[in-house]
Automatic annotation (TrEMBL):
Cell cycle among keywords: no
TM segment ranges: none
Source organism (scientific name): Microvirgula aerodenitrificans
Family to which the UniProt record says this protein belongs: Belongs to the UPF0758 family.
Protein name: JAB domain-containing protein
CDD domains: MPN_DUF2466
GO-annotated biological processes: proteolysis
Domain MPN: 102-224
GO molecular function, one term: metal ion binding
Alphabetically ordered keywords of this record: Hydrolase, Metal-binding, Metalloprotease, Protease, Zinc
Length: 224
């Protein structure tokens, strides 16, 4: 049954306006973005199918374009709406990161990194450059690798940190496998990069392993 045939009090859009977005399920919020369904399938039906296929909203909003377009009822227009919603969320977090003290409010940086890179299917290495006041100067993707590894060049990290006039750096990389535990190679690389940064008076304050659900901190483990 099309959503337009539902009682007004049950329609997602009307419920959002009257009660607020917080009362809606993931499927209802997604249905509002999709707007319409297909023959015999409402927008809610499509939303539920997509969430079942991609497991979560995050998985859906970060899925490859070619995989999204394989979903019944999801064409270029709906895909553009979903991409815009994901980018709005990312930019809101970016604003929060830029305004916060990265060390006093570490969750702002972690949430941003998790949303931006936690769902990536390729391992990506990122540097967050901080000022002497611990404000974020820039977030830069240093390299992108395969499903299981990424190459990081010490020279490029040092060069970029100096260009940004950074006083300190937070490093991060994602684990597409979802494994939250840092590998031995991760720990060895962190030691190497920390020593290299210290030679130019730049402090490595943390290295984060990012997944879809959490960020594992080297600093909190006592490894820095």
């Amino acid at each position: 049954m099309p959503i337009t045939d539902w009682p007004p009090g049950e329609r997602p859009r009307e419920r959002l306006i009257l009660q607020g977005a917080g009362v809606l399920s993931d499927a209802e919020l997604l249905a509002i973005l999709l707007r319409t369904g297909t023959a015999g399938r409402s927008a809610i039906d499509l939303a539920r199918d997509m969430l079942s296929h991609f497991v979560s909203l995050g998985g859906l909003l970060h899925a490859p374009v070619n995989e999204l377009l394989e979903q019944p009822g999801l064409g270029p227009a709906k895909l553009a709406q979903l991409a815009a919603a994901a980018e709005i969320g990312r930019r809101c977090l970016a604003e929060r990161v830029s305004q916060a003290n990265a060390l006093s409010h570490p969750d702002a940086v972690r949430d941003y990194l998790r949303l931006s890179y936690g769902f990536s299917v390729r391992e990506t290495f990122v540097a967050v450059y901080l000022s002497a006041q611990n404000r974020v100067l820039a977030v830069e993707e240093l390299s992108r690798g395969t499903l299981t590894e990424v190459r990081v060049y010490t020279r490029e990290l040092i060069k970029s940190a100096l260009q940004h006039n950074a006083a300190s750096v937070i490093l991060a990389h994602n684990h597409p496998s979802g494994e939250t535990e840092p590998s031995r190679a991760d720990r060895d690389l962190t030691v190497t990069l920390s020593k290299a940064l210290s030679l130019v008076d730049i402090r490595l304050v943390d290295h984060l392993v990012v997944t879809t659900t959490c960020c594992t901190s080297f600093a909190e483990r006592g490894w820095l």
